[in-house]
Amino acid sequence: MKRMSMIIIAAIFCLALSAQAQAQSIKVGYLDLSKTFDNFEKTKEYDSVLEGLTKSYENTRNEKIEKMKEAQGRLALLKDEEKAKLEEEIETMKADLLEYDRAQRTDLTKDRDEKIREILLEIEKVVSDFAKKGNYDYILNDRVLIYGNEQLNVTDDILKILNDNYNKQ
Q1: From the CB of residue 169, how many other CB atoms can be counted at a distance below 10 Å?
Q2: Residues 162 and 123 sit within 8 Å (Cβ to Cβ)
Q3: Contact 90, 67 (CB under 8 A)
Q4: Phi, psi values for residue 134, rounded to 5°
Q5: What are the tens digits of pLDDT across the range 110-163?
Q6: Structural domains in the chain?
Q7: CA-to-CA distance for 119 and 43, rounded, in angstroms?
Q8: What single-letter DSSP state applies at residue 150?
Q9: pLDDT at 1 (0 to 100)
Q10: Angle between helices 80-133 and 155-168 (to 10 degrees)
Q11: What's the pLDDT score for residue 136?
Q12: Residue 50's closest CA among 124, 93, 104, 126?
C-alpha cells in the first residue's frame, strides 16, 4: 500500500515537472497593434489618399452650396412666377446636395473600411510568418495585456518587416 502511494506521488511529481518544463518552453511575444497600424507606410499613404478624396468631396459640396446661396440671393429680385420656379430649383438643389452627401459619405466609409481590412490582413500575415520563422507559440495583441515584459514586444520587428516589404513594391 505504501509502495502504491509512493508510485502515485512520484507520478504526480513527474507530471508537475513535465507541465512546468512545457510552460517554460513556450515562446510568447506581443504586438502594439495601434502603433503598427499607424506607423505602417501603407497606412500613411492611404491616409493621404483618403484626405485628398475628402477634400475633393468637400470642394464639390461647397460649390453646390454656393450655387444654392446665389439662387437664394436672386429670389428677392424676381417676380412671383420666376420666384416660384427658382424656389423649385433651390429645393431640387437641396435634395441633390443631400443625396450627394449621403452617397459620398457611404462611398468614403466603404473605401476606408475596405482599406483598413486589407491593411489589417497584411499585418496579420506578416505576424503569422514572423511567428512561424521565430518559433513563437503565441503573439498577442497588446490590448489584451495588462502587463507585458518589453523584451517580449515584437512591434518594432513587425513594423520593420511590413515597411521593408511595402517599400520593395
Answers
A1: 6
A2: yes
A3: no
A4: -90, 5
A5: 999 999 999 999 999 999 999 999 999 999 998 888 888 899 999 999 999 999
A6: 25-168 (3.30.910.20)
A7: 7
A8: G
A9: 53
A10: 110
A11: 94
A12: 104
